Amino acid sequence: MKDAYEPIENYGVIGNLHTVALVSNAGSIDYLCLPRFDSPTVFGALLDKDKGGYFSITPQFTHASYKQIYLTDSAILVTRFFADEGIAEITDFMPIVDDNGVLTIVRKVTAIRGDTNFNLVCRPRFNYAETPHNILSTDENRIVFKADDGQELHLWSDVKLVSDKQDVDEMFLLQQGQTACFVLQNSIDDSGFKTDFHHYCLNCYNKTYDFWKKWTSQCTFTGRWEETVRRSAITLKLLTSRIYGSVMAAATFALPETLGGIRNWDYRYSWVRDASFTMYVLLRLGFIEDAESYMKWVETNCIADDMHLMYTMDGKHPSTETELTQFAGYKDSKPVLIGNNAFGQKQMDIYGELIDTIYLFNKYDGQITFEFWQMISKQIDFVCEHWQDPDHGLWEIRGDKRAFLHSRLMCWVALDRGIKIGESRSFPFPRERWYDMRDKIYLNIYNDFWNPEKEAYVQYLGGETMDASVLLMPLVRFITPTDPRWLKTLEAVERELKLDVLIYRYRNSELNIDGLGGEEEGTFTMCSFWYAECLAKAGNLDKANEVYAKILGYGSPLRLYSEQLSKRGQQLGNFPQAFTHLSLISAALALNKYNDDN
After folding, report:
1. CA of 510: how far to CAs of 187, 471, 513, 520, 567, in Å?
2. What are the pLDDT digits (tens) for 394-407?
3. Confidence (pLDDT) at 515
4. What is the rounded CA–CA span in Å between residue 80 and residue 66?
5. Nearest to 2 by CA among 28, 31, 23, 22
């Protein structure tokens, strides 16, 4: 069994645009759902070190140190082990293939310096560790794990494998310079690699590297932080479905927002908000084809009918929340939840975020048919009728609905961008009504959400608390970044929500606004990047550059980010998270622009 839980920042992510795996810097695959992003786990040691299952390959060094890198412009992960007696490395990747039902993980192991003994342990635990399995061994180079429900895993290798009734626990020796390959598949590939195993692995490597180099070559971003921006773009791509074009909020479920706390949500779904923001930044980076795929998904699943705030990757309704009582949880953080009850919430902001992305898609000459425009118009008409409705807001509170500033702001964005799309395409729309509603919402926000005692725009109508989502006001061009009211609001954010360069999303306080009690959260990294972008737009470039650089310093060694940071600066929440990476990109775009202008 595993000795302890790895820090979240000790993981790299690999994927094939159908699912992802998390690989620790100690060489262990501790998280993998098969065959899709939102399928049950096969390896889940990240959520239960004893019962969850894992696939580790470890050189038998004493006092080894570990480092991980990604090969440039790719999702190919290299884990290195350093010790006095030798150096070893593992190269992990998933070949990118069309939906043929076969998932493949390739693990290439090399003894760089010194003859090295390795320990291989493969302990799958099917269906969230609820379905038993046995081993069917067909030959010494292939092990077949077969679950009672018929699921299979095939472990191929070019070293002899020995197994017990359930697992593989095998030692093997590589001489200096020697390489061994291991291939894990959920069914037998028809590639015929049994006849030339090494050629198959090399071919997979070359094709995978070529895919990522070709994809990243579309990126138009140049300048400061170019490599960091590209890494975040690749991370967002890893969260995108090759089949559907939808985007996951994060790769994992049930990783805690507070260690030992109850905010352990399932993020393996496509939120309209998160996915729209993701496509917004990918469009700005030049990834037009990804945006086109997402728009087709939106047209098919979201706005042809009543729009919901979140969907499964294939456009269906998420399941209700269920606790996996068999899992202990990451560092004993319970409940371990799958499904998400936020699906039934009312969140009026999603209309603005989606239509803002459609507006940018149109600006980049994306194809918007009249039929698509009619669907968009229907959603904007809905906003006209319901913009004053209280809702659960951006943070998906589980308390009373309120008239949140962010929701009202995004209703204004929906009208504003809808008008711009309609006029640029000369589409028919009720001009007088939409203009009138846009102006009413603007005046309502500008006048009624201003708290004269606090001298700031506040979280909700009639409230006194601050919310970091207010930082979006200048970012969506609602207010001038140097407007006196806005500068006062920014001062209030710094006074009440800032810790060095990090920003809390809100302070729950005795009001218990989110309905989940007074559990103290970490700082929200996405909001910290918003803060840097606001500083840049206000012309405070020296401070913006300093803030941005320091926030980047909180990332993992692989420049991956989860949702929040603990008091100790450790990653918390599901990982990696799309919202954090897209806000990193957005801030880099702004800082790059304003630095170049000065």
Report:
1. 54, 24, 8, 12, 21
2. 999 888 899 999 99
3. 63
4. 6
5. 28
